[in-house]
Design goal:
By secondary structure, the chain is of the alpha/beta class. The chain has helices at 2-36, 48-58, 64-72, 85-95, 128-139, 157-161, 174-187, 215-218, 231-234, 238-257, 303-307, 313-317, 333-339, 352-357, 368-373, 376-379, 395-405, 418-425, and strands at residues 75-79, 99-103, 144-148, 166-169, 191-197, 200-206, 268-273, 279-284, 330-331, 345-348, 363-365, 386-389, 412-415. The chain has 2 domains: 48-317, Rossmann fold; 327-426, Rhodanese-like domain (Oxidized Rhodanese, domain 1), CATH 3.40.250.10. One of its GO terms (cellular component) is cytosol.
Amino acid sequence: MVDTISMVDTVSYTEQIKALKRENEQLKQQLNARVAKDETQVDAFFTLEEYLRYGRQMTVRELGISGQRKLKTARVLVIGAGGLGCPALLYLAGAGVGKLGIVDNDVVDTSNLHRQVLHSTERVGQLKCESAKTYLQKLNPFVEIETYPVRLLNSNSFAIFRNYEVILDCTDTPITRYLISDTATLCGLPVVSGSGLRTEGQLSILNFNNTGPCYRCFYPRPPPPNAVTSCSDGGVLGPAIGLVGVMMALETLKLVSGAYTQDNFKPFLTVYAGYPTQSLRTFNMRGRKADCKACSLQASITEKMITSGEINYTEFCGRVNYNVLQPEERVSVEELAEALKSEVTLLDVRAPEQFEICSLPKATHISLDALEKMSVEELVQLKEPIYVVCRFGNDSQLATRLLKERAGLKRVWDVKGGVSRWADVVDLKFPKY
């Protein structure tokens, strides 16, 4: 009898839980329906909750209720949901920008989490644009968010850009920066452009009101490919790039709310440095170049040239050719592991900061930069056979070619995949970074 009563109690309790869940779901549906019917709508712009949500910033003289209304109807596109895009999106959504677009075809990786603050450990492997949308919708359900899980290309940039009124360039390659600037200029859209690396960053506003300079005005020619360092190679400190992203958000709010006018706007470049003491410096920049190919009266770049692929941004910016060796001049990490059982020279050409993180047993460290500055007399002191390793197997190819051509060394091999491949195949406990 006792067992029967206990069973009845358990069933009853389970039914109560199910009933509570159904009731909770009904309440949620009623709330959503209420919002959909605008039962709390005060005026043409805001609900009661929105007045409460944005009240602290609407009382700021520089923004006011008129500026908040402009934010409500604004359409802002953010390209890149990484170290710059995450803090920018966070504050734009919090401020109440009506529609946010996010372009990013990358997925969340554990190495992103120290700086890309919209993502989480649980969302590793998800598309960054969708991960960001999940966070932002919880932060502010009044903001419409559209995602574009694609790589920005000549073929799709115009179709995406024309749905927005301000573009945020949160990318990290010259190839994409030129494409963004050219497309935005031809669409008549301003670009809030930011960048960051290590402990420094910078930002500016391009093509303001179709009269300000574009990216090509600042940089008519791209930097040499070997002078461009990515975050994965050069490293980045989260708060430093985050501050630049926050400043980009503020510049966007100023653009959208009308704080900048034709009379008071002057082209600028703001530079942030995190070390040794934090500093911000803003430089006045020149206006449009009279002979700019994208934005001057003599502009030669057209939409058709971009969409057809006639303008090849990869070719224009160039790229470092790491494929400088023949197959027989490269070995696998398994072959390296076997070679290390005998007397060989293992030369690690990564940057000092990377070598300090982890290194293979018996490795000799000479960075590629230092290697290139060494004399022939110094290079020939390296004892053959030599196996050259770096992080991914790129710089080590250049170092191997240098040792063979400049120093005349014969028994030199590059290690394919570098220490990253070693961690995947030979030693699963070797740190990856």
